[in-house]
TrEMBL record:
This is DegQ protease. It holds the Pfam family PDZ_2. One of its GO terms (molecular function) is peptidase activity. Residues 272-349 form the PDZ domain. NCBIfam families: degP_htrA_DO. GO terms for biological process: proteolysis. The lineage of its organism: Bacteria, Pseudomonadati, Pseudomonadota, Betaproteobacteria, Rhodocyclales. Keywords: Hydrolase, Protease, Repeat, Serine protease, Signal. InterPro entries: Chloro_Bact_Ser_Proteases, PDZ, PDZ_sf, Pept_S1C_Do, Peptidase_S1_PA, Peptidase_S1C. SUPFAM superfamilies: PDZ domain-like, Trypsin-like serine proteases.
């Protein structure tokens, strides 16, 4: 009886151990413990939607995005025999009185104030004789140009409406990061108001040769002809950029689009609304980047700074003693490492101000004062 009870208890213990702790009776090594971190569910939007939908952001921004239709007169091509005396004897001036043709264009814009100011690209309206703005609710209103800034490719229009218009909310560009979701809103190919989604691919894109002043947001949200001047908004529907250009070999979107950041657009817009133009600093020099080869040929200790290759006669730089061959190291305490950085540093200075310039002339460093002038329209120098 004692032996039978002992066997029964042993079998029971073996069953329990093999069920609960099989590694104790197995000759195979135990698997390592795995800790699984559960993904946190996204916070619900006020309406109950999750961030997988950007309908609220689109609905918030759509009423402020408009379509811009432009037209201009284009002179008809003269008849090849129009200047022939014999030909004019029989036909007179009838060929010179043919009606002019009308060329049309389209683009997009963003209502930035309830008073009817519309921000768009300069290239959308620069050659237009007549401009019409189509609102989100279907109304069409004539528009006038308040001012244009070709160097940043921005322009401000104004429309008059019977009631206050829906204006977009400006975002905070300092809170924008690579990888953030963005929506591009505009009128591509004239098909009507369209929203596309992508992410911020890069920030601070320069040296693209698109504008004189460049600080682009790069995005893969689809931007096509007709989107120019439209809104680039964040996931909350706030304006973060003005769609301006694309990189394309076919004319359609290849996933590389560029938008002017709202910080630059706002500065230009406010100056245009207040004064009708944009005021930038200028000293009258031509510059070029310092390559290692150029540094060797000039005997420079390094390639830092920007080489001044030319100085305009009677310009602020000329009056202050700046010479061709000088290397500009800093502008008003701001280091400059390439021509674009120097251009932006000088342009940010108010005309009439005495600014400090650090130069290298040969092996000597100089500190001089230059009275900043006003940058001429479409100036190629600095």
């Amino acid at each position: 009886m004692i032996f039978t009870q002992a066997v029964t208890i042993s079998v029971a213990l073996l069953f329990v151990v093999s069920t609960l702790k099989p590694e104790w009776v197995s000759d195979r090594p135990a698997l390592p413990a795995i800790t699984i971190q559960e993904a946190i569910a996204p916070a619900a939007a006020p309406s109950g939607r999750t961030t997988t939908s950007y309908a609220e952001a689109a609905q918030r921004a759509l009423p402020a995005v408009v379509h811009i239709f432009t037209s201009k007169d284009v002179k008809s091509q003269r008849h090849p025999f129009a200047d022939d005396p014999l030909f004019r004897h029989f036909f007179g001036d009838r060929l010179d009185n043919r009606p002019q043709q009308r060329a049309s264009g389209l683009g997009s814009g963003v209502i930035v104030s309830p008073e009817g100011y519309v921000l768009t690209n300069n290239h959308v309206v620069e050659a237009a004789d007549e401009i019409e703005v189509a609102l989100n609710d279907g109304r069409k209103l004539p528009a006038r140009i308040v001012g244009r800034d070709p160097e940043s490719d921005l322009a401000v229009l104004q429309v008059k409406a019977d009631s206050k218009l829906n204006a977009i909310t400006f975002g905070h560009p300092e809170q924008l990061h690579v990888g953030d979701v963005v929506l591009a809103i505009g009128n591509p190919f004239g098909v009507g108001q369209t929203v596309t989604m992508g992410i911020v691919s890069a920030l601070g894109r320069t040296h693209l040769g698109i504008n004189t002043f460049e600080d682009f947001i790069q995005t893969d949200a689809a931007i096509n002809p007709g989107n120019s001047g439209g809104a680039l908004v964040d996931a909350a529907g706030n304006l973060i950029g003005i769609n301006s250009a694309i990189y394309s070999r076919t004319g359609g979107s290849l996933g590389i689009g560029f938008a002017i950041p709202v910080s630059l657009a706002r500065n230009v817009m406010e100056q245009i609304i207040q004064t009708g133009a944009v005021t930038r600093g200028w000293i009258g020099v031509e510059v070029q980047a310092i390559t290692p080869e150029l540094a060797d040929s000039f005997g420079l200790p390094s390639s830092e700074g920007t080489l001044i290759s030319g100085v305009m006669r009677s310009s602020p730089a000329d009056r202050s003693g700046v010479r061709p061959g000088d290397v500009l190291l800093s502008v008003d305490g701001r280091k400059v490492n390439d021509p674009q950085a120097m251009l932006e540093a000088i342009a940010a200075l108010p005309p009439g101000r005495q600014a400090g310039f650090e130069l290298r002339r040969g092996k000597e460093k100089l500190d001089i004062k230059v009275e900043v002038g006003r940058r001429p329209a479409l100036s190629r120098g600095d």
